[in-house]
Amino acid sequence: MKKYLVLLALFVPLLVFGANTPEVTDITNSSRLYRTQFYLYAGSQYKFRTYSSTDDTVIHILNSSNSQVAYNDDCGTDCDAQQSAWCSTITYTPTTSGYYYGVMRHYSNGQVGKTATIKAFRDGSLVSTQPDRPLGGYKVSTDIWDAYTNGAPLFTFRHLHFYYLNRSKEEAGGSTVNDSVMYLMTGNTITDFNDDGGADLSSKIEKTSGSCTSNCKILGGAHYLSPQSEGNARVVLDTETILDLDGDGLSASLETILGTSSQNSDSDGDGLNDYIETLGTADILLPWEGSSPVEKDVFVEVDYFGRQIGANYVNFFVNHEQYIRDQLTDSFDRHGDIRLHFDIDDHLGDMADTGTTLKFAMKGNAPATPDPAAYYLGSMMSTDFTQTRSGIYHWVVAANRHSSATNESSGISYTPGNRMIVSLGWNANGGSENKYAGTTIHEMGHAFYYNFGPDKHNGNGNGDWRDNSILHRSIMNYNNQFDGVPVNVPGDNIWRYSTDNSTNRPELDWSYTNVIQGWTNTGANGCIVDPYINNGCTSDANCAAGLVCETSTGVCQSPKLACKSAGAGATSTCDCTFEEWPVLDLTSGGQMVMSAFVAAGVISAENERENPVFGLRGVVIAENLEDLMNSGAKYGKLDEYRKSSSEDSSELTANEKFYTEENKKIARDAYISLLEKNGYKENEDYYITEDNEVMLIEKSEKK
């Protein structure tokens, strides 16, 4: 990357950039902008009139190329008796027959709910009346811009990007549908139009030629057929994209306005690229979903089953949706400064202990043969999970049971960590709000790195002395999963990961300072966080400083080894605790293992640095920025597309190598290597499913 920056620095003096100032404008009350199509005959005289007794209307006529051919604001001397002076009248005689467009807007911004009538006359006769059409639109003034060609062959053109997007379904006053339209204007002349060119149904205009030298505007609004799209919106103008220092698709100048880093493509460290958090990808408008490039975001889609229990029908999870949403949102924001976004999505059907083919939810083949008629999380993901959200959203399936028709486990989390089951429907009344809140955040914890080492619950969970730790105040502790975590300070949310530290728990011994395996916390009571290294040790000398060797297993253990010998009834002084929030990993959970592709020669080390592969939680999203921006349409639909396509497509080329069986094996083997390095054993701590994916085995689940 540096060599390109050097070349750029050498040639910048040759360029004259003009103004081209990036801009971000937030809008309140973006209203509907009316657009209609009609056929005009060459040589006929047409008159278009707007009618409203109170509102100031403006009308534009565009040709089939969306270039303006006529315009009027106030009808002046050409008003008829039913028009007020604020209405519009256009007289136009086309020289070419064909389809034309009429655009009607309000002179003032933010006119939600306003309407007017349009009448069209041909050679003096009324030919069309369109009553009560929405009268809105929102104009945003921009600096002058120029997308000229300059400096060829070094720079043949410059990209200028204009965006109009709704903000957002989670925002007060935001729209509930995200369909927008946009025009560029010079003075009162429309020069460009776009409907669905941006992410999902938002608008985007990319300019590689042309300019606006004065009175430049962006005219946008909600689609005229979509009143649900009215509400808050955002306009983004990005220029000088040559100067994109971190390769995230946003210019350095725009990043200054946004408050993001021009040196880091993921400024807030949540695993989501700054571009998609600002502008979205092809089929998902992430900012409309609630994302911010300067605040950590976690997105969750919940699909759910139901069950008849006595006289009541229970939808798992949904019955306690608001409580779960409120409690977990508060916990993530209060302790991790993370914004949690829930989307309660699809009802998947009914489950029961008996009398139905759907008894439990499971992915692949469990160690014991599963019910062949059961619902399979893996095989149904492409059907029920919103595929454009892959690599961005976690998928929670709320079910009756998992793994078997008799398993009374509360839930399970899969590898990679974007899929989990909350299986509480077998409980009386389908489970309590406390059980659903605690289990959901517990299983999500496994997706956030709380998986590595034999102790997958950071203080308990292997059926030995760590079970039901008294000191480890975390939702990952089975002792707290259903009842909440004891508070450290007033105001603590009881549904949380551990906040233990020397400030709020001074009674513990926090003097142990050895740090191994990259963890930044060492825990209390002389314990090392996650120190269980299986290296075949035969003595303490084989272990890292501060660890002791358990010679019977060859594992380097905590110096509190004697606690384990005391069995499950050991006193609380033998337990360990530490602060979990600082080591929570939203980006990949250690599962991306892209260095394995370099080692295998799939990509070069230089390409990994200069054209990084974008991934999240173990999922490859895109090989480069261009594919990242379009990943919403490709990811998750790749296999379906391949099956339906009879010939090779250029759309598959960029990502194809990451979906071959050979490269899946490379990534899988690298991940297994990490597991085994941390003491995991096949068929004891993990197993390989029938479709060759790695599944972690929960050895103990609270009933």
Question: Could you walk me through the main structural features you see in this protein, from its secondary elements to its overall organization?
Answer:
- With 703 residues, this protein is of the alpha+beta class.
- Helices cover 18% and strands 26% of the residues.
- The protein has 16 helices and 33 strands.
- The strands form nine sheets. Strands 2, 4, 5, 7, 10, 13, 14 and 17 form an eight-stranded mixed sheet that branches. Strands 19, 20, 21, 24, 25 and 26 form a six-stranded mixed sheet that branches. A four-stranded antiparallel sheet has the order 1-18-12-15, with helices on one face.
- Strand 28 and strand 29 form a beta hairpin.
- 46% of the residues are buried.
Helix count?
A: 16
Which of globular, elongated, flat, extended, rod-shaped describes the shape?
A: elongated
What fraction strand? 25-35%
Mean pLDDT: 79
Beta-strand segment tally: 33
Summarize this structure as a short list of keywords or feature phrases:
alpha+beta, disordered C terminus, eight-stranded mixed beta sheet, 33 strands, 703 residues
Break the fold down into its secondary structure elements and pairings.
Blueprint: H1 2-11, E1 23-30, E2 32-40, E3 46-51, E4 57-62, E5 68-72, E6 89-92, E7 98-106, E8 115-122, E9 125-134, E10 138-142, E11 145-146, E12 160-166, E13 180-186, E14 189-194, E15 203-207, E16 211-212, E17 216-223, E18 231-238, H2 252-258, H3 274-279, H4 286-289, E19 296-309, E20 312-315, H5 321-336, E21 338-350, E22 361-362, E23 375-376, H6 377-384, E24 393-399, E25 411-413, E26 419-423, H7 433-447, H8 478-481, E27 533-534, E28 548-550, E29 555-557, H9 561-565, H10 595-599, H11 605-610, E30 614-616, E31 619-622, H12 625-629, H13 631-634, H14 638-644, H15 650-656, H16 661-677, E32 686-688, E33 694-696
